[in-house]
Amino acid sequence: MRLSQFHLHTTKETPSDAELTSHRLMLRAGMIRKLASGLYTWSPLGLRVLRKVERIVREEMERAGAVEFQIPTIQPKELWESTGRWEKFGPQLLKIKDRKEQVFCYSPTAEEAAADFARQELSSYKQLPVNFFQIQTKFRDEIRPRFGVMRAREFLMKDAYSFHLHDDCLVREYENMKAAYSRIFTRLGLDFRMVQADSGAIGGDASQEFHVIAESGEDALVFSTGSDYAANMEAAIAAAPGERPAASEAQRKVETPTQKTCEAVAALLGLGLERTVKSIAIMSTDGFVLALVRGDHEVNEIKLGKVAGLQGYRMASEAEIATHLGSEPGFLGPLNPAQPIRIVADRDVAALADFVVGANEAGFHIAGVNWGRDLPEPEVADIRNAKEGDRAADGGELKIARGIEVGHVFQLGRQYAQALKATVLDENGKAAVMAMGCYGIGISRIVAAAIEQNHDEAGIIWPAAMAPWQVVVCVINPKQDEAVATAAAELLAQLQAAGLDAALDDRGLRPGQMFADMELIGVPHRVVVSERGLAAGTYEYRSRSASEAESLDRDALLGRLAG
Amino acid sequence: MRLSQFHLHTTKETPSDAELTSHRLMLRAGMIRKLASGLYTWSPLGLRVLRKVERIVREEMERAGAVEFQIPTIQPKELWESTGRWEKFGPQLLKIKDRKEQVFCYSPTAEEAAADFARQELSSYKQLPVNFFQIQTKFRDEIRPRFGVMRAREFLMKDAYSFHLHDDCLVREYENMKAAYSRIFTRLGLDFRMVQADSGAIGGDASQEFHVIAESGEDALVFSTGSDYAANMEAAIAAAPGERPAASEAQRKVETPTQKTCEAVAALLGLGLERTVKSIAIMSTDGFVLALVRGDHEVNEIKLGKVAGLQGYRMASEAEIATHLGSEPGFLGPLNPAQPIRIVADRDVAALADFVVGANEAGFHIAGVNWGRDLPEPEVADIRNAKEGDRAADGGELKIARGIEVGHVFQLGRQYAQALKATVLDENGKAAVMAMGCYGIGISRIVAAAIEQNHDEAGIIWPAAMAPWQVVVCVINPKQDEAVATAAAELLAQLQAAGLDAALDDRGLRPGQMFADMELIGVPHRVVVSERGLAAGTYEYRSRSASEAESLDRDALLGRLAG
């Protein structure tokens, strides 16, 4: 490949709306161009990287036994209604009317269509298990598309759907896919972690996410130093607290005229923040509920929504708070509500003695509160976020890192197949609803995530497998110096013969400009062919990650690059 | 590849709504499944064939110097309005409103978006020429989607857009693309022809189509025996007629009480049909026009619409005919109209003497009519379809065959770039609007077209390059007979080592069922490994196109398949 024949177009300007490093660098490198909000054209350079990711994903899916198919991007409303997801997916679903006023959507994922295909194709348990995958453009109508291809509306995704007669077969394929995903991200050369996840809108029995570790990641990931336990903050669980100490203080009302936060109350009283309790007033379908977490903890909305009866809860209004507690926000607590209320205490709150809560009276808190004495024993649940330094269930310590979700695997169970009546005849000739798994990878997002993880001030630092080219031979003065141009072309042929994805930068740019381009677009290895080098029988070699260039003769160079 | 691990699902039933052979065979072979009207899921088998076509198209586009990029499928209305095509494309354009009520379409082609990308990326003539291509799902909201993937609404297309400073550069790239297309269809193993075409809705200066020859083709193609002249019927031109003979008859009114067609009038008068003239009454934006073609010819609506002033014409109503000609249909003619009218005569009508026309009076025609004597010399144009047996301009004879359009190349000129202000600085530093070419291939349609051209009663007969596998090794009793299974696996490895795309049919089906499947899905070469064959040291080999199987030893088999 000669870069004079390849359309490369880097720019110096940083667009003002590009907040994220990967977005800025992809624009500067000329990998993508914006067509409209959340819609990007992939330039030849960008597409070259995207295709490398796509190829590795395809190879590993096939190695894992999955077979590729392709579902239309445009799918009928009726299909989505059969599982209730037409409504459930909400405004992210791009809805479309055709010329005959039939209603469709642009597929954001394809559980329904895959189950529909399986229903037509699979009739006997002998055809199972089978795992169908596709690599396809998807669309999600994000309310605030931003960060370039990290959260684009139109994006490239690998989605796979497996079908099984028995649950244990689903579990085996789930493990098989987890292993395949680990191979994929390992081959891509990314620092990644698999974490336990909440199944969210897709639903199902178990799910795990794959994250690329990066400081700019949207997700907080929780790890234990004591084992390989790792979970998304949404799902992460700290060790259960120790036994509750005995009560040692009397209950007392304290004046807190302007202290509306736990921090302020703790400071006023000279207490540790972990002795205070935050009261969160919410409305469930059954009525008013007060959720309690320690002052130094944060409520986890996903966990709270999983407590029996609290699915789909919302925050209570000030009027609702006044009605049920007789107080204004800032002084809320479980004692002396205006009406009987349901209380849900976090495990760590239930383990407290001598704690502080709001008095349900403006300007006052109550200290020295104890369960069993001042309040009945509460309903207990884990409703808080794990926290850096928490003890883990395995005895280790919890650490937090940030990640970018690039893959997600689900054990869906039978909900989709049931809704779509996707059955096969089992060993006894009876119709049995199939168990399903689904497995996604955000291919275009991986490109951005890799950049978030691997860059410096000069630009992108691609892992070898994702680089547009592994090595670029830069030619100084190709038009003026025929000997140099010939030597460079020969070297290119030798590198390609050695199995390297190599290109020749014969664009005739000034060396500084050429080198800056190669650093910006993240080429792992750069070789310079110059008149002076030829005279000395050497090439100037520089690794993208090294600070200095070296002079190497041809054998040394080939040895270095092949190694 | 082992077929027991690949999802293959053939069926015997022929769906009632599948009219076309390729549609029926693709459904029976299990290559596609219908999701909704005009929307098909590609099964693993179908996708395997589709990807083979895609790969060849990509390789040849790259060999021809084009670079791949990717434009979003969802494109903003404003972009399409800038060239007037939002309206012009009509209801085929699938229109979409997003959650913010912004209006988009699903790209049916991408001239605007490509020109928009070029506007952002290209600033200097030094970056030219460049040819960007993509292989991508497109959508056209066909009013009557049918024939399976032959005319699906969602389909896979290769579209390319080239940019040039000068017209001669565009012409060179156009020729380069024509050569690339010929290589593509040659490699695919298809009987194809390149024909001159009308540019239609895309517009531009010159265009040619590539057709797969097949009896079921929707398009009539016209060839000359005298040269390589070939054209779509829309654009085909016969040789100009010879000189007009001298008038030899007097004009006379003849009674034709029930003779409303040229055929009936010719029969009544005992004249050749070529002496009669058909009058077609149309309304242009400037008013009533009478178009004349010989009784044995058919008017060509595309050619007629290209006559000055007739763009966008429509057929005249009976009332309009009565007003302008004073007659009812069946007896129309250019003589004695009720009002002065414009007359456009086909070249062959202008070359007639002593001809017959309607009298503009119910029940009468006029014979012995002559130009210059009975009528002023007419406005002349080629407005008829070419006809089998016509003389060609090159002196040969015109022949007609039917074809399926699978590719189309256009010299667009500057209309799109002008509308989108896609300019570069030229050699003199002045802004110059770029010239554009565009080049399409219907990748999914090629699959159906290949089947239309290559099939028999047993099923599909794939050309080697498109076959899901070149050779399948069929194992008799793989589960009962370990020696046979082992020998088959060894043979598979040898075939693969010889570079063949080979698979093993280890599904354990009965031989007849297995062979019928292989014939239906069109595998070019079938090898049977059986206990009896092993004992004799032979394999049963059958080519898909041969009527009989042969017994071959291993060397002979490998020699045959490698050859």
Automatic annotation (TrEMBL), chains A, B:
<dbReference type="GO" id="GO:0004827">
    <property type="term" value="F:proline-tRNA ligase activity"/>
</dbReference>
<feature type="domain" description="Aminoacyl-transfer RNA synthetases class-II family profile">
    <location>
        <begin position="38"/>
        <end position="463"/>
    </location>
</feature>
<keyword id="KW-0030">Aminoacyl-tRNA synthetase</keyword>
<dbReference type="InterPro" id="IPR002316">
    <property type="entry name" value="Pro-tRNA-ligase_IIa"/>
</dbReference>
<keyword id="KW-0547">Nucleotide-binding</keyword>
<dbReference type="InterPro" id="IPR044140">
    <property type="entry name" value="ProRS_anticodon_short"/>
</dbReference>
<dbReference type="InterPro" id="IPR045864">
    <property type="entry name" value="aa-tRNA-synth_II/BPL/LPL"/>
</dbReference>
<dbReference type="InterPro" id="IPR033730">
    <property type="entry name" value="ProRS_core_prok"/>
</dbReference>
<dbReference type="InterPro" id="IPR007214">
    <property type="entry name" value="YbaK/aa-tRNA-synth-assoc-dom"/>
</dbReference>
<dbReference type="InterPro" id="IPR036621">
    <property type="entry name" value="Anticodon-bd_dom_sf"/>
</dbReference>
<dbReference type="InterPro" id="IPR006195">
    <property type="entry name" value="aa-tRNA-synth_II"/>
</dbReference>
<dbReference type="InterPro" id="IPR002314">
    <property type="entry name" value="aa-tRNA-synt_IIb"/>
</dbReference>
<dbReference type="Pfam" id="PF00587">
    <property type="entry name" value="tRNA-synt_2b"/>
</dbReference>
<keyword id="KW-0436">Ligase</keyword>
<dbReference type="InterPro" id="IPR004154">
    <property type="entry name" value="Anticodon-bd"/>
</dbReference>
<dbReference type="InterPro" id="IPR004500">
    <property type="entry name" value="Pro-tRNA-synth_IIa_bac-type"/>
</dbReference>
<dbReference type="Pfam" id="PF03129">
    <property type="entry name" value="HGTP_anticodon"/>
</dbReference>
<keyword id="KW-0648">Protein biosynthesis</keyword>
<dbReference type="InterPro" id="IPR023717">
    <property type="entry name" value="Pro-tRNA-Synthase_IIa_type1"/>
</dbReference>
<dbReference type="InterPro" id="IPR036754">
    <property type="entry name" value="YbaK/aa-tRNA-synt-asso_dom_sf"/>
</dbReference>
<comment type="subunit">
    <text>Homodimer.</text>
</comment>
<comment type="similarity">
    <text>Belongs to the class-II aminoacyl-tRNA synthetase family. ProS type 1 subfamily.</text>
</comment>
<keyword id="KW-0963">Cytoplasm</keyword>
<dbReference type="Pfam" id="PF04073">
    <property type="entry name" value="tRNA_edit"/>
</dbReference>
<dbReference type="InterPro" id="IPR050062">
    <property type="entry name" value="Pro-tRNA_synthetase"/>
</dbReference>
<protein>
    <recommendedName>
        <fullName>Proline--tRNA ligase</fullName>
        <ecNumber>6.1.1.15</ecNumber>
    </recommendedName>
</protein>
<keyword id="KW-0067">ATP-binding</keyword>
<comment type="function">
    <text>Catalyzes the attachment of proline to tRNA(Pro) in a two-step reaction: proline is first activated by ATP to form Pro-AMP and then transferred to the acceptor end of tRNA(Pro). As ProRS can inadvertently accommodate and process non-cognate amino acids such as alanine and cysteine, to avoid such errors it has two additional distinct editing activities against alanine. One activity is designated as 'pretransfer' editing and involves the tRNA(Pro)-independent hydrolysis of activated Ala-AMP.</text>
</comment>
